Automatic annotation (TrEMBL):
It is an enzyme of class 2 (transferase). One of its GO terms (molecular function) is RNA methyltransferase activity. Pfam families: SpoU_methylase. Its EC number is 2.1.1.-. This is Putative RNA methyltransferase. GO terms for biological process: methylation; RNA processing. It comes from the Bacteria. The lineage of its organism: Bacteria, Bacillati, Actinomycetota, Actinomycetes, Mycobacteriales. Residues 111-257 form the tRNA/rRNA methyltransferase SpoU type domain. Keywords: Methyltransferase, Transferase.
Length: 264
């Protein structure tokens, strides 16, 4: 259905994307063919897909009927509605679903990652993308972890934040760690990543364990002492002289790879 009027209320779900995040309205936003397709295939009910005629036709040719309203707009109309020139030419909005519980996402998991204080949305997106590519079964969010469904997180994750199960622990910075007992009780070996030279080598920390929970902290401060005390072992990634740390998503990716290697 063609919409020429940028003020048409049917376009409200994708309005002013450059000024505010739609998560505050209970929405999830996906941009581009691949991410939109992952939104449609996810547990989040899609409200509409908006795009250029060629992009909508291409989407249907590749993925079929999405089962939701599809609105055709010009590039100029979409730019006015979204607040910037959306060159990808395709955007979708969905409702949020009921949040998953920790017990639910770890039920059949063998490898999970736990995030504490990771507040940067691009890091969150990168972590989800890395986790999805390296056989991590779920992401668990401790205190201070940003929203994986924030528009930038979804975009950077290439839509994997919509596919990979995640759940949030209850509690603040000094209390959420108590819930890590749920993982220990479920048989997970809890490993906290730290640049501390006294920590064991990452490979040694992972060896021989069927179920692993890898925990990473924010850029700079890293994991709190409260969090590390709640794990079984503290592990380090050996670094070259003169360096002491990596970007959190990069460090996590190395840990995910080492887990893959040791688990096979």
């Amino acid at each position: 259905m063609m919409i020429a009027d940028p003020h048409d209320p049917r376009l409200d779900d994708v309005r002013d994307l450059n000024k505010s995040d739609k998560s505050g309205e209970g929405l999830v936003i996906a941009e581009g063919h691949l991410v939109v397709s992952r939104l449609v295939a996810s547990r989040f009910p899609v409200r509409c897909i908006v795009g250029f005629a060629s992009k909508l036709e291409h989407y249907v040719d590749i993925y079929g009927d999405p089962g939701c309203p599809m609105y055709e707009v010009s590039r100029e109309t979409l730019a006015e509605v979204a607040g910037f020139d959306m060159h990808r030419g395709l955007v979708a909005a969905a409702d949020r679903s009921t949040p998953l519980e920790v017990a639910e996402v770890i039920q059949d998991a063998q490898t999970v990652v736990v995030l504490e204080g990771v507040g940067d949305h691009e890091n969150i997106g990168s972590l989800f993308r890395n986790a999805a590519g390296m056989d991590v079964d779920a992401v668990l969010l401790g205190a201070g972890a940003a929203d994986p469904l924030y528009r930038r997180s979804v975009r950077v994750s290439m839509g994997h934040a919509l596919r990979l199960p995640f759940a949030r622990f209850d509690g603040g910075f000094t209390t959420w760690q108590r819930s890590l007992a749920l993982l220990a009780d479920a048989g997970f070996h809890l490993v906290s990543l730290t640049p501390d030279e006294d920590a064991v080598h990452l490979a040694d920390a992972l060896e021989g364990h069927a179920k692993i929970a890898l925990m990473v902290g924010a850029e700079g401060p890293g994991l709190t002492e409260h969090a590390m005390r709640a794990t079984h072992v503290r592990a380090q990634i050996p670094m070259a002289p003169g360096t002491d740390s990596l970007n959190v998503a990069t460090a996590a990716a190395i840990a995910f790879y080492e887990r893959q290697r040791s688990f096979r």
